[in-house]
Give the backbone structure.
Amino acid sequence: MSNIEDLRTAVISGKRKDAKVLTTALLEQGIAPERLLEDALIPAMTVVGDKFKRNEVFVPEMLVSARAMKESMKLIEPKLIEAGIKPKYKAIIGTVEGDLHDIGKNLVATMWKGAGFDVIDLGVNVTPSAFVDAIETHEPDIVGLSALLTTTMPAMRETVAAVKATGKNFKIVIGGAPVTQTYADEVGADGYSPDAASAVDLAKSVLAA
Amino acid sequence: MKYTSLTISDPDQLIYGTAPHPITTKHGMVIGGGMIYPELNFTLPNIKIEKSSMPEIRRHYQQIVSESLQRAAELESPGVVLEFETLPPMTEFPEFGMDIVKILLDGIEEAHGKYGLKASLRCTPNDNREFIRPPIMRSGRYWEAMLELFEKSAQAGAEFLSIESVGGKELHDDALVNGDLREVIFSLCVMGVRDMKFLWDHIVPIANKHGVYAAGDTACGFGNTAMVLAERQMIPKSFATVVRAITAVRSLVAYECGAVGPGKDCGYENPILKAITGFPMSMEGKTAACAHLSPMGNLAAATADLWSNESVQNIKLLGGMAPTCYMEQLIYDCRLFNQASSDGPEAALQMRNWLVKSDASLDPQALIISPESSVAIAQAIVSADDHYSAGIASAREAIRIMRDSSEKGSLKMDTRESAWLDRMEDELDDLPDTEEEFIEEMMEDVDTDKFVPEDYELPVLLTV
């Protein structure tokens, strides 16, 4: 008999094949898919994320765990959809227009996925209108904007203004090397994260507010 | 491989201010001729670049050139290089870029007339080809506009042409965050090398046509991305160190195609290239903290022929506008280095050794560009048969240097870092012997939707 603890350990250790085998077995044992998500996968990624925050693991090691979670999610996700269970939060993320930097943005997306968010990644060089279209289509709970250049920060301001004009109910968080809390306040974002490691805590705190 | 032996094989000859093949500027600066000069870099503050903001943007650059060169003259700098690294819209619309080139060249001539200051301009169009995903590397409007800016800036009198090219970056960012050394080698030594050859086979003839210098490329988007990620504890420093060693193989291609230096500042692999080619190099270190942090603030100066600040926004500091303040800092650093040189070769070597020793034991990324390490890695590269083998050889040499230094106690390295040495060595052991086999394996593994294989002369795999 497999147990949820084994799955959690497999994800923490980044063992993809084990994660797949255990997920299959646990689903066959009749364990509810949402339990696997809530009691194994998300706690596993929380452990890994915390280790990363404490500088105990590097990103490559964290991504090995993320891939193990993904392997498990491939099996769990269809069951969740079948049961009508939606992720607690939906997020849209992208690098603003004129900017091609995406390492930080990708890491935030990975960490949000690890926390159980449904993440729609719009990529890089995303125009304000593309953000607006995605918001209209997906109705997210949170929108993340990234910029690495001082000269693309104005695009961040324009994007915040454009997405707010949709009148939809969601939070906006921003980040990137030249961005500060002061700038976030100035442009009317709900939060600012200095690094990818803090992005999950930030998202949860602004969504709870 | 064009270079089969080293131009500088004695680490003691790899020293700041002196290069076996110096170059002389129009105003008479001899870069690599025994003296180190400042190279000032600057950028705009938070401002959107578009037609309507160009008057304000012009004012920024006019202020930068006039105030910084005035300060250089006041401090009696023997010469100075300005680098204009364009921002994306300035390459996309070459008329924007050329507006600024002309402002800077006018400012340089004015300072020469007014103060007798020797100054030169390096023009570095940013590589916009990645604005399309997957990037179109060998044709299209971004490619055409970039070539136009190279051509027109050379024609107008920018004496050095450089670029931070992006060929291979389509896969490299993922390779870094995944700690995937195989993919790093594929990005840099297969894709990067092919793109560099194509690119520099276009830039060198432009420079030659207009009598200016094809100065060189850097693997900034590769090696410095790794360095910044390591600095933030995201990837191991030992991995970033190996990446740095491999970047030298990619950057070398510009010189194989006819570039002559001074190599561009953000190429921390430049000491390795100086040992191979003998051309002068620009470097950045502690005075580049305004742009990014690094673990080799002093050591980077040890072999530099131009000493740079990487990039600083034109904002007001207490001492003046930031570029002017950085001009002053660079000049004082250069004065000190040049004073040591003028006291004789032993004093210069002592100064260089202090620069090296103050950083080398604290971080492998610093150690790897020390004169001794640079010569060792350069030797590994020129001993290889092709760029693929050179990539592997440079990686192995970097691992050997880190392991030996750590065992001797001359390099600080924790167990979390040193574990990666074994992991990387295992990855290298698993690589095939030939580039052909490697390409065959990798084209099945990598995400070929992220790049255009034809632009890298790579086979297109047919999917069934």
